């Protein structure tokens, strides 16, 4: 048989190709730009303008009487921020709170999801019961927690007294901190369970059967098949909870209001106090902006990981 | 079709609609309209048809007024909307309303420390309205209000009166009279003094009585309870001890408490007397119900009325709830004495009128404020099933039916506290926290340090010195309203 020789023409370079590209790009941008304009305008009204206002507030002393007015004070509030030892302690406390709540919620949520996944009968009923705390408003969860830990009539206080704990749960520094952590974990573990369960149902049955045929035990299957399969889902769950945990407010405000002895005063409580109790709005703007920066940094870390896994496109 | 240069009907209609929408929008954003004034000789009915918005903390007097607004509406023809909020929320809304300049709230519950001191410039000087011949004056004049209350809740830094005394909660010694009677002789023998609560008992004796209940009876779980949560209540509870030991927040404490100032001078909490008071308070809380550290006044009140503790310092307006829970079993006395005096912290509040109100709105608001603090309304509040506070008018306490109600059986349970609070309101016994615009931040500083002291994180001396340092830092920054 004869040999068929195929000659591919080299793409045209230089002067001819160059004019085409900008033309196509401009056209595409024009269409997308037009579609995005209303959204961008709305975003500007809802986010950008308030953001710029808060930024301006952080360099100003804000007066309320006779209409809101700003008087420029330069870096005064930013300098105060870096010298505020209390605030740094509160950031440290927020970090500990963040690690404890998110860590516990991830571990418990994953464990509960695995249990539910294996449950063949009554799964929906159990799942419905499990999800209930998530549908309660955080402030109600806080009130509920306060009643349950009340030393006069609280169920948990009574149970703890039966096992020999005589202290007041919300009256001790450590016990109060652990109590508010527990309340958050109680409320938001179901969300992790739900997201993880959705991920588990997508794990390929054939891969699990193949692993079983190869002699993989339950732990090995979990370690090498299931967890890698749901890692991206877990990462999304972690991202959602992290963003929430850093601005945790309601339950602490209702139960301990930051006490006793500042043991539960996290940064959002401090921010609220500075803005709406002291009306020190310039300094509150600084605290808020730093909180925003931290939240964005956390989100960027997770999005970066998802990006590396190729899950953002 | 539209020909060039010719406007068709549809385009014209569109233009008209756009113009109408724009006009509506500018009208909505533009000037406000005042309420109408009716030409009448009846000074109470000249604003008939107006609506007055009254924003208040959810307190007993407001509950009673809200339950009985009909007499005011019949008298004036004015409709009143009452918005009740928790105090912190109220302060936020009032601050934002004053900033907005729209006067959403015409009549304001003006807490002396959180509203009056920081925002007095945004309130109306009520002397102008009281002296306006077109408006009804105050029955009995300003002089009918209890003098210390008028100064404490109505004035800030001068002679102007920004608020009319509206409620007057005061911390007094509340105790289970039945238990004190039951154990009186045994206690007297064991303790070596007459344990019956009165303004002559000392804090040391209070401590020993509390301990006696802890150690000798099963009638109650603990002798005493306190409102020692990391909250405003902790400052209130401690202040009684502080003043009785001769300590104070600032140098000229009486003037700062009564009239208020923007520049209170250096803080005095580092003094020996203040440290001694803190040491005693720490000792007292060590034998009090351990849950005290989680209670504010709302947590403490049911502890007493449910029979968990034998006595406590609490706001006198809880008397009605006490009587409801265990009728006839409670009694009230002024706070114990320290080395210097008996001090009873006053937590009263006035009602003020928003400075952004338009002239007729202001007149209508004055009618309501005047009526709500009038002797007749205060008497009706005393009898109200909805709660009701105690009067702020001297003339009401002089009424024969009120005097009779001071003794059981009483149809006005709150007035059972009258002998104790009358004593507490005497200038020598009243306790007034500093009326300064930055009080919220100072308040937070002291109750946080006290909470740390009670948790064992710092010593009483360190807690007081640290608080003094913080107070000075806060007051040095000054205040911009």
UniProtKB/TrEMBL annotation, chain A:
Query: Keywords on this record?
Result: Cell membrane, Membrane, Transmembrane, Transmembrane helix, Transport
Q: Which CDD domains match?
A: TM_PBP2
Predominant location? membrane
Q: Which GO terms describe its biological process?
A: transmembrane transport
Q: Where are the transmembrane segments?
A: 29-52, 64-83, 95-117, 129-148, 185-204, 225-243, 281-303
**SUPFAM superfamilies, A to Z:** MetI-like
The compartments listed are: Cell membrane
User: Which cellular component, as a GO term, is one annotated location?
Assistant: plasma membrane
According to Swiss-Prot or TrEMBL, what is its membrane topology?
Multi-pass membrane protein
Show the Pfam families listed in the entry: BPD_transp_1
The family annotation for this protein states:
Belongs to the binding-protein-dependent transport system permease family.
- Protein's UniProt name: ABC transporter permease
From TrEMBL, chain B:
- Transmembrane ranges, per UniProt, are none
Which InterPro entries does this entry report, sorted A to Z? Bact_solute-bd_prot1, SBP, TAT_signal
Q: Which UniProt keywords apply?
A: Signal, Transport
Origin: domain of life = Bacteria
Membrane keyword on record: no
Q: Name one Pfam family in it.
A: SBP_bac_1
Family to which the UniProt record says this protein belongs: Belongs to the bacterial solute-binding protein 1 family.
Q: What is this protein called?
A: ABC transporter substrate-binding protein
Which organism is this protein's natural source? Prauserella muralis
């Amino acid at each position: 048989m004869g040999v068929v020789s195929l000659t591919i023409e080299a793409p045209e370079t230089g002067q001819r190709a160059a004019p085409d590209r900008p033309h196509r790009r401009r056209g595409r941008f024009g269409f997308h730009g037009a579609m995005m304009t209303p959204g961008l305008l709305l975003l500007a009204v809802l986010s950008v303008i308030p953001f710029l206002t808060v930024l301006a507030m952080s360099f100003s002393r804000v007066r309320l009487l006779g209409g809101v007015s700003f008087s420029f004070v330069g870096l005064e509030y930013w300098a105060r921020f870096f010298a505020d030892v209390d605030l740094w302690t509160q950031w440290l406390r927020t970090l500990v709170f963040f690690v404890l709540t998110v860590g516990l919620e991830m571990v418990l949520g994953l464990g509960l999801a695995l249990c539910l996944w294996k449950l063949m009968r009554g799964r929906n009923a159990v799942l419905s019961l499990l999800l209930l705390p998530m549908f309660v408003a955080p402030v109600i969860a806080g009130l509920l927690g306060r009643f349950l830990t009340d030393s006069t009539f609280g169920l948990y206080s009574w149970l703890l007294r039966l096992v020999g704990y005589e202290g007041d749960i919300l009256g001790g520094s450590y016990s109060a901190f652990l109590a508010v952590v527990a309340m958050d974990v109680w409320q938001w573990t179901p969300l992790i369970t739900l997201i993880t369960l959705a991920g588990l149902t997508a794990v390929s049955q054939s891969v699990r059967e193949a692993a079983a045929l190869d002699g993989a035990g339950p732990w090995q299957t979990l370690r090498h098949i299931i967890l890698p399969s749901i890692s991206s889902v877990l990462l999304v769950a972690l991202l959602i909870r992290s963003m929430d945990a850093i601005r945790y407010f309601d339950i602490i405000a209702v139960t301990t209001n930051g006490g006793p002895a500042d043991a539960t005063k996290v940064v959002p409580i401090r921010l609220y106090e500075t803005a709406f109790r002291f009306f020190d709005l310039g300094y509150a703007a600084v605290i808020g902006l730093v909180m925003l920066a931290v939240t964005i940094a956390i989100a960027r870390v997770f999005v970066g990981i998802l990006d590396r896994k190729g899950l953002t496109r | 079709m539209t020909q060039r240069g010719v406007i068709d009907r549809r385009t014209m209609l569109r233009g008209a609609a756009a113009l109408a929408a724009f006009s509506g929008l500018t009208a909505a954003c533009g000037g406000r309209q005042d309420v109408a004034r009716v030409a009448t000789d009846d000074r109470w009915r000249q604003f008939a048809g107006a609506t007055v918005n009254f924003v208040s903390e959810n307190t007993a007097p407001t509950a009673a007024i809200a339950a009985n607004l009909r007499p005011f509406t019949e008298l004036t023809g004015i409709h009143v909307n009452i918005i009740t909020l928790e105090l912190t929320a109220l302060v936020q809304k009032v601050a934002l309303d004053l900033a907005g300049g729209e006067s959403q709230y015409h009549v304001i519950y003006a807490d002396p420390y959180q509203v009056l001191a920081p925002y007095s410039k945004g309130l109306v000087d009520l002397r102008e309205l009281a002296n306006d011949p077109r408006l009804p004056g105050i029955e009995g004049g300003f002089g009918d209000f209890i003098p210390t209350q008028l100064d404490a809740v109505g004035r800030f830094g001068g002679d102007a009166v920004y608020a009319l005394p509206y409620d007057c909660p005061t911390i007094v010694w509340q105790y289970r009279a039945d238990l004190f009677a039951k154990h009186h002789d045994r206690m007297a023998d064991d303790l070596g003094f007459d344990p019956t609560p009165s303004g002559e008992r000392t804090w040391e004796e209070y401590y020993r009585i509390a301990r006696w209940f802890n150690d000798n009876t099963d009638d109650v779980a603990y002798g005493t309870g306190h409102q020692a949560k990391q909250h405003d209540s902790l400052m209130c509870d401690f202040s009684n001890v502080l003043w009785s030991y001769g300590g104070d927040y600032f140098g000229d404490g009486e003037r700062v408490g009564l009239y208020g100032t923007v520049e209170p001078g250096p803080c005095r909490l580092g003094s020996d007397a203040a440290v001694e008071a803190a040491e005693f308070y720490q000792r007292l809380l060590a034998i009090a119900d351990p849950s005290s550290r989680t209670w504010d006044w709302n947590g403490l009140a049911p502890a007493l009325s449910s029979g968990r503790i034998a006595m406590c310092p609490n706001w006198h307006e809880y008397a009605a709830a006490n009587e409801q829970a265990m009728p006839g079993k409670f009694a009230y006395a002024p706070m114990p004495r320290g080395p210097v005096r008996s001090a009873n912290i006053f937590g009263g509040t006035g009602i003020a009128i928003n400075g952004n109100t338009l002239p007729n709105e202001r007149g209508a608001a004055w009618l309501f404020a005047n009526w709500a603090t009038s002797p007749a309304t205060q008497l009706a509040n005393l009898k109200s099933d909805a709660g009701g506070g105690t009067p702020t008018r001297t003339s009401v306490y002089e009424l024969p039916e009120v005097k009779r109600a001071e003794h059981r059986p009483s149809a006005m349970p709150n007035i059972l506290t009258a002998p104790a609070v009358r004593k507490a309101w005497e200038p020598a016994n009243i306790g007034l926290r500093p009326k300064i615009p930055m009080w919220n931040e100072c308040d937070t500083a002291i109750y946080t340090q006290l909470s740390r002291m009670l948790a064992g994180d710092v010593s009483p001396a360190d807690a007081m010195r640290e608080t003094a340092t913080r107070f000075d830092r806060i007051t040095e920054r000054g205040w911009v309203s």
